[in-house]
Amino acid sequence: MGRKREEEEEEREEGTGRRRRKSGEREEKKEEWGDRGEGGGRGGGGEGGREEGRVGRGRRRREGRVGRWRREEEEREGEEEEEREEEKEGRGGEGGGGRGGGGEGGRDREEKEEWGGGEGGGGRGRRRRGGGEEEEEREEEEREGEEEERRRGRKGQGGGEGRVGRWKIEERRRGRRRRKREEEDREEEERRRRRKREEGTGRRRSMEDQFRLCQFHFHWGESNAWGSEHTVDRRLFPAELHLVHWNSDKYSLFEEAVSGDNGLAVIGVFLKVGKRHEGLQKLVDALPAIRHKGSVVEFTRFDPACLLPSNTEDYWTYHGSLTTPPLTESVTWIVMKQHIEVSHDQLAVFRSLLFTSAEEEVQKSMVNNFRVQQPLCGRTVRSSFTSFLQEAASADVNKQPH
C-alpha cells in the first residue's frame, strides 16, 4: 500500500509539472504572437491559447502598434548597419542581404513585406522567418488575417515614417493656410478701421485750410410748407440760407476752387417762420430796390455772421456738390442743427422778387428756387453732436449730389 501511494504521488507531481510546462509554453506563444499585433493561438498551442489570443487581440493591437513600429525601426537600422559592415568586410554580394540569406531580391521582398509593399502591408510588424512548416503556416495565417483587415478598411497605425511624414507635412500646410487667412482678416479689419477714421476726420482735415466767404444766398418756396434744400427727419423748412466759402490756402481764385478737390465749404442754415429777425431786416429793407432781374444796389456794412444761429457747435456734415450749375462735387457741406426764426412779413418780401426784368411783359415770381432732394448715393452723413458716425437714415439730411 505504501509503495502504491508513493507511485500515485509521483504520477500527480509529474502531471502537475507537465501542466505547468504546457501553461508556460502557452504563455510564451501568446507573448510571441502578441508582439506581432495579431493575437495569440493561431499556429497551435491548444484551444485555450487560441481562445485567449482572440480575446486579447484587439487590446494588444491598440497597445502594441506604436511600440512595435519603434522596435522594428531599431531592428531595421541595426540590420542596415550590419549589412554595411559586411559589405565593407567583403561579405556582401549576392548572399549578403536579408535575414534568411535570400540575396538582394530577398531583402527587397522582406522590406516590402515589413513596410506595406508586399503581402503583409500596413507596417503591422516584422515577420520572423525560420525553418519548419509550422512557422510557415503561422505566417500564412497571419497574412490572411491582415488581408482580411485591409479589406475591411482598417489601417495600421504604424504605417512607417512615410505616413507620419506626410501627415506632418499636411498639418504644416493647414497651419500655414490658417495663419495666412488670419493675417488677411487682420489686414482687412485694419483697412476698415483706417477708412472709418479717415471718414470721421475727413471734414476736420479739410477744415484745417483757410476758407474765405465768397457770397451768400437764400432758397425759398411759395409757401411755408417747403423751400429748403435739406430735410431733417424728412421735414422741410420754408427757406434755407447758404454761405459759400472757398479754400484760399489751396487755390488762388474762387473759379479754381469750384472745380477743385476740397475747394468749397458751404454752411447751410434753416429758416423757420416765427419772430422777426433783426439781423436779417437790413437785408430785407434793400430787397425792393433789386426786385427785378439785373437790378443793382449798394449794400455795405453788413456782417453775415449775424445770420448764424446761436449754437454753431451742432451740425451735420458730408461731402457733396453745388446745388446750382456747374453742380461740381467739390463741396464740404456743414448744415446747422439749430435754425433761425424770421417773420412771415420778412419771407413775403423774398417771395415778391421776380425772375424777369422790368421790360418783360410777362412777369414771373421768384419762388421755389430750390433743388429737390437727391439720393445719398452711398455717402455718409456725420454729426458733430454724437460720438459715432450717424447715417442719413437717422439724421435724414437727404440733399446729396447726383
Automatic annotation (TrEMBL):
The residue ranges flagged as biased composition, category Gly residues, are: 93-104
The UniProt entry, under Gene3D superfamilies, shows: Alpha carbonic anhydrase
Q: Which domain of life is it from?
A: Eukaryota
Q: What class of enzyme is it?
A: lyase
Q: Which residues form the Alpha-carbonic anhydrase domain?
A: 207-385
Which GO cellular component term is one of those annotated? mitochondrion
Q: Please write the reaction equations for the catalytic activity of this protein.
A: hydrogencarbonate + H(+) = CO2 + H2O
Locate the region Disordered.
1-206
* Keywords, sorted A to Z: Lyase, Metal-binding, Zinc
**EC number(s) of the enzyme?**
4.2.1.1
According to the UniProt entry, which residue ranges have a biased composition of type Acidic residues? 74-86, 133-147
Question: Where is composition skewed (Basic and acidic residues) in this entry?
Answer: 24-39, 64-73, 105-115, 163-173, 197-206
Q: Which family does it belong to?
A: Belongs to the alpha-carbonic anhydrase family.
**Function according to Swiss-Prot or TrEMBL:** Reversible hydration of carbon dioxide.
- What is the recorded name of this protein? Carbonic anhydrase
